[in-house]
Amino acid sequence: AGKTRSLLLTVFMFVGLCLGVFIAAFYATFRVAVDRMLAQSGEIQVREQQAVISGRFEDDCSTLRLQARDMAFWDETLLFAQRENPDYLTDNWPAASPVLTYQTTFMLVKDAQGADILSEFRDPATREELSLPVGLSLALNPFVQTGVAQYNRSIPREELGSSGILLVNGAYYYVSAMPVCVPGESQKAAGTLYMGKLLNTAYFCGITQYQGLDFTLRLPWRPGQTEAPAYVPANGSKIMLTLPMQDIHGNSLLLQASGGRTHYADTQQIITRATLMLSAVMVLLVCAVYIIMSRMLMRAIEQLGRDLLDAAGTGHIDAAKYAG
Q1: What is the DSSP string of 131-195?
Q2: Does residue 55 register a pLDDT over 60?
Q3: Nearest to 109 by CA among 200, 197, 172, 189
Q4: pTM for this structure?
């Protein structure tokens, strides 16, 4: 019996060792393969997000430019810039202001000397009207002379104006500045019309529907740097992508979007749970094999051993007992 138990223990230890090696090899191979698959999937997702952010931003900026150009070329706007149309706002926007109507952050109209005729600034989130941020009107003044000097009746209307990203006291805005005129008719521009949007996380989340990302515009780390690759930080918990941009003066900017790798983390949790469940099933299987071997196979071996001992003493084996 002792030898039988020793054989049973040996078999059990062998099966357990094989099972342990199998689980370790399976876990390591599965984890490496899944990590590689998730990394490739994450890279594809980053590229797709880059394309979506770039496309949606360009579409929104194009819409803003068209709105500003359209308004700046109205006869009514020309008269307003010449201070000859006091009912300009109520006649054209009786229900809501142009900033609310066109979903922009601000709108300004300056005369040819740079004096503000109309200024409206609203909080992008609450749409509450606020006073102009300090320095914004002053930062827009250089485009008055540019627009006025740029205008002449021979320039195609689609080439008039200046548009781009403008940094004012730490905040980035996309600004479209258009000379107020009637192309082909006005002898000179009467002023400049500005429309703009504040570029912050809420803005980019709004146009892309990527609610889990944090967006930041910044200068390049190195002078002259125009692009940076998308990358995943070493700790694997966050993912970051970058897009090269330019400000209204042609200087390089980088738009960074970062956020948690929720898909990666969720998948890793699923893998861990699946591995634990598989390990538990394997352990139960080994226990079941042990019980089956202990109660059936090993009992038969033990009985055979006893019969062999008896046969050694009597010289007789009941062959019919083992014939089945």
Answers
A1: PPPTTHHHHHTHHHHHHHHH--TTS-GGG-SEEEEEEETTEEEEEEEEEES-TTT-SS--EEEEE
A2: yes
A3: 189
A4: 0.71
